Amino acid sequence: MSEEECHEDVDISDITEHSESYLENEHLKFALTEATEADNNKLEFELNSEEQVHEKKQKTEVIRSTKLPIARIKNIMKMDPDVNIVSSDAVFLVTKATEMFLETIVKETYAFTSSNKRKVISKKDLELVIDKVDCLCFLEGAMDF
Amino acid sequence: MAEKPEDLNLPLTVVTRIVKEALPSGVSISKEARTGLAKAASVFVLYVTSAATNIVKNKKRKALTGQDVIDAMKDIEFDRFVEPLGEALEHYKTMASARKSASMKKKDEQEDAEVIEDD
Where is the Transcription factor CBF/NF-Y/archaeal histone domain (chain B) (predicted)? Predict the structure, then answer.
């Protein structure tokens, strides 16, 4: 029983901390994306200023502001029959939340894995976590595949 | 539940990358666990969508907005996501308006360039 509580305690502060630093990195990525959107179209003009050459290079370095594909997430959301119109910022936030969720659940699962002195996270560990952690109860039965 | 693989599943490679970054080095994940995580992520999307849609319905609105998603986090016991998502929304709005003004600026420059060429 105490082991159970211990795992739930590990959960909260760990995750919040990581989420915050994750978003600080995202801020830099946003700044880069900004510059490249503008020169996507400049490419046609070939005014050949040094600035543009530099910006072209930046284009290839652009990091997406989300890692998961937004279009795929939008498709999943639309499977809900009650969903009508979804704004783009809503899809964006769901994508972000899902990324944060993945970080949360894997860290939670790793706590179980490492408590058993293993370094490979197994499906069993995931199932245990879903069972033990309250906010993950919506995943009950999801691992039956 | 009838599933179409392309519809419900998120790309395994991306999911793997996200979770690996969240773990210390030297830790690996079994293939089954990776699939399980991708599936869990899809279920999470549906779960959040459902919670957010309920909020929209109760307010008798039709469009699901970013704020509804944030409010839904509280309903589904993911309060700790509220603040980071709030910040993300701010960044997104800033980026969206910057993109807008950048494309308007580019439009002006286009016109300028055409004028130069004509001369």
Answer: 9-73
CA distance A1 to chain B (A): 22
Chain A interface disruption, residue of B10, B54, B68, B111, most A CBs within 10 A:
B10
As for the ipTM of the complex, it is 0.85
Question: Residue-wise pLDDT tens for chain B (119 aa)?
Answer: 555 555 678 999 999 999 999 999 999 999 999 999 999 999 999 999 999 999 999 999 999 999 999 999 999 999 999 999 999 999 999 988 888 888 888 888 887 777 665 55
A85: helix, strand or coil: strand
CATH of the domain at A127: 1.10.20.10
Domain span at A87: 70-145
- Domain's final residue, options A11, A35, A65: A65
The CATH class of the B1-77 domain is mainly alpha
